[in-house]
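Notes, p. 3: input format for complexes.
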Amino acid sequence: MIPAQFRYQRANTVEEALAALAEHGDEAKPLAGGHSLLPLMKLRLAAPEVLVDLAPLDELRFVRLDGDTVRIGALTRHHDLHGDGVLREHAPLLAHVAGEVGDQQVRHRGTIGGSLVHADPAADLAAALLACDGTLVARGPRGEREIPATEFFLGPFTTPLEPDELLTEVRLPRQTGRGWAFEKFTRRAIDWAIVGVAVCGQSVGLVNMAGTPLRASATERALASGAPIAEAAELAAEGTSPVDEPHATAEYRRHLARVLTARALEAAAA
Ligand SMILES: Cc1cc2nc3c(=O)[nH]c(=O)nc-3n(C[C@H](O)[C@H](O)[C@H](O)COP(=O)(O)OP(=O)(O)OC[C@H]3O[C@@H](n4cnc5c(N)ncnc54)[C@H](O)[C@@H]3O)c2cc1C
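Output follows (270 residues plus flavin-adenine dinucleotide):
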């Protein structure tokens, strides 16, 4: 499997990357860890004429606490998120979920920004960010804008980012006092989730239950009105539209969503 021909351009600063994207428009694609983009290119499902390599941009690799906000650079790798002391203390759900993504090789190359912009409905970090009430920061020729995670996932592999914008940062409130848990059901240990559930306090993010990662809104409303966990978890599949596949039917996924939500809420409350 060989990708279509492309030109390779290495960006040494964010400004250089933005200039390259502005010059080539939707013929260009930023390259982060390459673990989603390169397979698509090999399958010829993506054929950018120019790849703008973000690898040298160390300025987008960080985790820091800024008042009550945890700030994460878009190029921070899953492995580094998982081991980061600040993240483990102030946003432990996200740190834990980063350690559940794929295998060692994927976690050493893949970045949080690449995972979120790729917008795969089966992405673990996207559901965790939804549960954490996160925000994404995009920079482009028109300046910087913040997009709440609840408005970022528009459809399968679709986000509101323009071709000339870069995702630069992810922000989330400190998780202080909010219990958390992540349940991921897979066929093999390193697989993508058949269904996953991320809980932070009374917020619930679902992996692979629709064309986008989404919140289990009916469960959240039930919890907010004082329903017991078992009752609220029974509503976890409401408003979802999971895919029907031979190895996991839609009904099986709805069942999993209910069971995993109950488990995650119980664990978060313990
Ligand atoms: C074998 C395998 C198993 C996996 N298992 C899992 C799993 O269990 N759970 C899971 O959640 N994920 C899994 N993944 C996906 C993994 O998390 C990828 O790392 C991630 O989806 C993409 O990150 P990346 O840095 O490699 O992005 P890339 O592949 O480089 O880019 C992905 C997309 O985002 C764009 N992009 C990247 N960075 C930016 C930026 N800063 N601004 C604007 N656009 C940007 C690119 O142009 C491209 O369109 C798996 C991948 C593989 C190959």
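The chain has three domains: 7-53, 61-172, 180-269.
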